[in-house]
Fold this protein.
Amino acid sequence: HAPEMLLKLSDLLSYMLYECDEPLVPLDKEVEMMKGYMALEKIRLSDGIEMELNVKGDMSNKMIAPFLLLPFIENSCKQNSTLTEQAWVNMDIGIEGDTFTMKLANGVLPDNDALQAFSEDGLPNVKKRLSLIYPQRHELKINQHSEMLTVLLKIQLAETTHPLSHENEEALTIESTKPKSKQYAFQ
């Protein structure tokens, strides 16, 4: 798996170093980075984890703060690395108008306080970034059930054009009426 891991890590580092120098990045690029990170984690965990990423809606002309979603995936993988039974992560991303929604669920040990561990590790930084970048335009709910941790994040995004797209502004005004849906399974 080494060549495959190096390629995915190279893509991830390239995104981090060269494409995230602005306060907002194209949402489709951020989702691609998340797919790459999830695939890398799948390899790292020796395919002992079931990961699924579903995307519904039109991500074109949508911008989001870079690496805002990464701590949630990192936490899910961390929680799953302790599971002795089948580990799993399920992420649903939806875009409707200017509303971005992420639903993330993952397995946890029944006696593990996964919410407390996440609250100590990365959650304060994520909450701070959300309040600074999307003040009063976001909602974050995290719940732990007996063997599952769920995260619901909603953000009101502003629709913007990508700087490289100015050559064809006429095409940018045409919106698709048919919702797009993609599903990625990492198996």
In short: The radius of gyration is 17 Å. The chain has a mean pLDDT of 79.
